[in-house]
Amino acid sequence: MAQVSADHAGTPRDASSPDSDAEMPRVVADGAGYFVLWMARRPEPVGALDASAPAAAEAIGEPRAYSWLEMVTLDAAGLR
């Protein structure tokens, strides 16, 4: 296992789930570890409310999407 210190960064890890599009990550120190928060998004299924209707756009050129906050806690080495 690689040592993590002020001089050496650890191995990068993907904290978000593979089925969401994570954005705006934030890392908050919490004593002996960290909270990592981000906004997750997933496209709304086409015709979710009505199978015959196309998905409405939230903004020009942007399809509707579900969004929520996700969080994980990590130890001082960046592990779950």
Salient structural properties:
mainly beta, 3-stranded antiparallel β-sheet, 80 residues, two-stranded antiparallel ribbon, 5 strands
Structural features, described:
The mean pLDDT is 76. The strands form two sheets. This protein has a three-stranded antiparallel sheet with strand order 1-2-5, with no helix packed on it. It is elongated and about 45 Å long. It has strands at residues 21-30, 33-43, 57-59, 62-63, 65-75. 0% of the residues lie in helices and 46% in strands. With 80 residues, it is mainly beta. It starts with 20 loop residues before the first strand and ends in a 5-residue tail after the last strand.
Which spans have pLDDT < 50 for at least 5 consecutive residues?
A: none
- Shape by Cα distribution: elongated
Q: What's the β-strand tally?
A: 5
Give the N-to-C terminal Cα separation: 14 Å
Strand line-up of the largest beta sheet: 1-2-5
Helix segment tally:
0
Supply the helix-strand structural class: mainly beta
Radius of gyration: 18 Å
Secondary structure: helix percent: under 10%
Largest sheet: 3 strands, antiparallel
Approximate strand percentage = over 45%
Mean pLDDT: 76
What order do the SSEs take from the amino end to the carboxyl end, as H and E? EEEEE
What does this entry show, briefly?
The chain has 80 residues and is mainly beta.
What's the topology here?
Elements: E1 21-30, E2 33-43, E3 57-59, E4 62-63, E5 65-75
Antiparallel strand pairs: 1-2, 2-5, 3-4
